[in-house]
Write a structure and sequence with these properties.
The complex is a heterodimer of chains A (about 475) and B (about 220). Chain A has about 475 residues and is an alpha+beta fold. Chain A contains 15 helices and 20 strands. Chain B has an eight-stranded mixed beta sheet with strand order 4-2-5-6-1-7-8-9, with helices on both faces. Chain B is globular and about 75 Å long. The chains are: A alpha+beta (about 475), B alpha/beta (about 220).
Chain lengths: ~475, ~220
């Protein structure tokens, strides 16, 4: 087995930055009690201004006049960690988020699908960069070694035990994931590299540094197998973006909406599912949240399409109050069946398949706007059609091409009767109809389908046009 | 003018350019009426363009004019979209006309959204033909529809009242149905002069023969 470790050195900061519309302006994460605020992390612009992690907030304010300070939220960071684990799930069946700020993925089983490791690594890096997370990646035969090597190297790939032993030997003692006390005491003994530690007599080392240290050394070398908690993707998706200002127009929600739908698409791709129904929740300061349901006829997972549909539903919404947070909730995630395409299909630019076009039309015109036609076996013309389903065989009778939704009195004067009467008498159980239908020609030359009550020949009602 | 110049010398000196009649490729969209195909310059509906049918009234044979085309397209598996039809298409009659109902889609839209929906359908290239009923469209709307039909390589069919005949239109083909006497008049066809005489209606249905490719009757595109 080969394990890839993706180390996320700035997980908390990246999670905050990716929702900010202007990530190039100085921004820091702060933590600690109110009396003694400390900087936890600073972005590139803030670092350029001289701000450093670990600096008191007061000092930072003395150095730099304008920067945004965001409270560090460990729960939020945990959610991003979960999100990335869901993303990583597409690359391997065994994904662990057990170690802080890192993801471990068993990748060897996926080589046949994604190609050899360099290609897979490139793919991962591209996607992480697009998602907006900084990362370091290392590959090793066991997860503990991968984690330790990712802390020192970026892009290192070790597939065999002999080079692993050499690389571990070069590792600084304090970066090997040993218990902190043990690492400090080993360092004070003058042992700088792990190779020196491995050279010590095992029993003596165990007495001095403890069995935890021995276990970690064995795990690194692959001699001790410790099971990892594997990640299981949840069966629903929820993501929320909170704004620190009020949003009064739906147009300003588009940027966060694009992020949310993009995250949803990444999550769906990871579990090879689609989404058929999701809800956008616009939270206000006061009052109930506005819910905008987005429904599709078939499961989809394309990010651009989901964004366009959600946008179509969001545009006509009248905001009763300013929005403070936007939430996307998808509870039902049915399996996704991609549509088949013809390999040699030459299609013009801007071409969209019918499914996508149908969703686009429904998003703007309403859920019921697009429907099919089918024949229903009923003598009454009003009930002889359905807007879905399969058709019965058509009756070999004269029927008009256009049917009026409601019969109306025939205003045009009849010049002659072309055919009829055809008695239609049915439906005593629900809405009885007793009519004599005639094909008539009006004075203007139109051919109409009109009826009058059975047995009479006056009071014609127009019901269709033979067009 | 005091000197008479021989035309030949001008032509020899290449000071006159003679317009070459270009033979247009024959259409792959026959109307289903041999008599109508024969008078149309491309031998059928103009492909990837908007065509108009102008009607004085409802119920005078407008569907009979379109059904052979729609039947052929749906039988071949193409999708036909009806955008905001004025009445409900009665499925039994459409099926009897040979139209495959499962390849027919009806889009309900308010008049202000109908033009947008028709443009989306035309542009998408998902449909083989799009029928629309533009309500008092301005020149811009029609031009958008025509461009969308070109972009989506789609047969666009607009059904409009005959009062629109007085106004210019960017459609590639304009047909007018008349009632008294029943006849079909070609008002405009891109790529040729419209025939002077109207065709009597109803037309006999049938396979259209191979269109005559006579370069002398074709004139350069003026539309």
């Amino acid at each position: 087995m080969l394990w890839a470790c993706i180390l996320l050195p700035q997980l908390a900061l990246d999670g905050v930055l990716r929702r900010h519309a202007a990530p190039d302006e100085p921004l820091v994460l702060v933590e600690g009690p109110v009396q003694r605020r400390m900087l936890r992390a600073a972005n590139a612009a803030a670092k350029a201004a001289g701000l450093r992690a670990g600096m008191p907030l007061a000092t930072a304010q003395a150095i730099c006049a304008r920067f945004a300070a965001v409270e560090h939220d460990p729960a939020e960071t945990g959610r991003w960690h979960d999100f990335l684990a869901a993303w990583a799930y597409r690359y391997g069946a065994q994904v662990s988020r057990q170690m802080a700020a890192s993801l471990l993925i068993e990748v060897e089983a996926s080589f046949r699908l994604f190609g050899p490791w360099p290609r897979m690594e490139t793919l991962m890096r591209e996607e992480l960069a697009a998602l907006g997370f900084r990362h370091r990646i290392a590959l090793a035969p066991n997860p503990w070694a991968a984690r330790a090597l990712a802390g020192v190297h970026d892009g290192l790939a070790i597939t065999h035990d002999a080079p692993l032993k050499q690389a571990l030997g070069q590792l600084p003692v304090e970066r090997a994931g040993l218990p902190p006390q043990a690492a400090i005491s080993l360092r004070r003994m003058g042992l700088r590299r792990l190779a020196q530690v491995y050279a010590l007599p095992r029993a003596a080392l165990g007495r001095r540094a403890g069995t935890d240290t021995l276990d970690q050394l064995d795990r690194l070398a692959g001699a001790l197998a410790t099971p990892l908690d594997c990640y299981q993707p949840p069966d629903h998706f929820e993501s929320r973006i909170e704004f620190n200002y009020e949003i009064g127009a739906t147009g300003q929600l588009l940027f966060p909406l694009r992020r949310l739908t993009g995250d949803l698409a990444a999550y769906l791709a990871g579990r090879d599912g689609g989404v058929q129904r999701f809800v956008l929740k616009l939270e206000h300061d006061r009052g109930a949240a506005t819910e905008v349901p987005v429904g599709l006829l078939a499961p989809e997972r394309d990010a651009a399409m989901l964004f366009e549909l959600a946008r179509g539903r969001l545009d006509p919404v009248q905001l009763a109050a300013p929005v403070r947070a936007l939430q996307l909730i998808a509870r039902e995630l049915p399996p996704f069946v991609p549509a088949g395409r013809d390999l040699f299909d030459v299609r013009p630019q801007q071409a969209v398949p019918w499914e996508q076009l149908r969703e686009r039309l429904r998003a703007r015109l309403g859920d019921e706007a697009v429907h099919g036609l089918a024949i229903h076996a009923d003598h009454r013309p009003e009930r002889a059609w359905r807007d879905h389903g399969s058709s019965d065989t058509p009756p070999p009778l004269p029927r008009p091409g256009w049917l009026l939704p409601q019969p109306i009195p025939l205003r045009e004067r009849i010049s002659r009767i072309l055919a009829g009467p055809e008695r239609i008498e049915s439906g005593w159980w629900d809405g009885e109809v007793r009519r004599d239908y005639y094909v008539v020609e009006t004075e203007a030359g139109q051919r109409a389908w009109a009826f009058c009550p059975a047995g009479e020949r006056a009071g014609f009602m127009l019901h269709g046009w033979f067009a | 003018m005091n000197s008479v110049v021989a035309l030949d010398s001008l032509l020899d000196a290449r000071r006159l350019w003679r317009g070459q009649p270009q033979a247009r490729p024959s259409s792959r969209q026959p109307t289903g009426f041999p008599a109508l195909d024969a008078v149309l310059p491309s031998g059928g509906w103009p492909e990837a363009a908007l065509s108009e049918a102008l009607l004085p009234l409802d119920g005078i044979g407008e569907l009979a004019l379109l059904w052979p085309t729609l039947a052929r397209l749906t039988q071949a598996g193409g999708l036909v979209a009806l955008v905001a039809p004025p009445y409900l298409p009665f499925p039994a009659a459409w099926a009897n006309a040979g139209v495959r109902l499962d390849r027919l889609q009806v889009v309900r839209a308010e008049p202000r959204d109908a033009a947008w929906a028709a443009e989306q359908c035309l542009r998408s290239a998902a449909c083989a033909a799009v029928l629309c009923w533009p309500q008092q469209p301005d020149d811009r709307t029609l031009r958008r529809l025509q461009l969308a039909a070109e972009t989506g390589q789609c047969l666009g069919l607009a059904l409009r009242p005959s009062s629109a005949a007085a106004h210019a239109s960017p459609a590639a083909l304009r047909l007018a149905l008349e009632v008294r006497p029943p006849q079909l008049r070609v008002l405009k066809c891109r790529g040729g002069n419209p025939p002077a005489r109207p065709l009597s209606w109803p037309l006999p249905v049938g396979e259209s023969p191979a269109p005559p490719n006579d370069p002398r009757t074709a004139v350069p595109d003026r539309a």
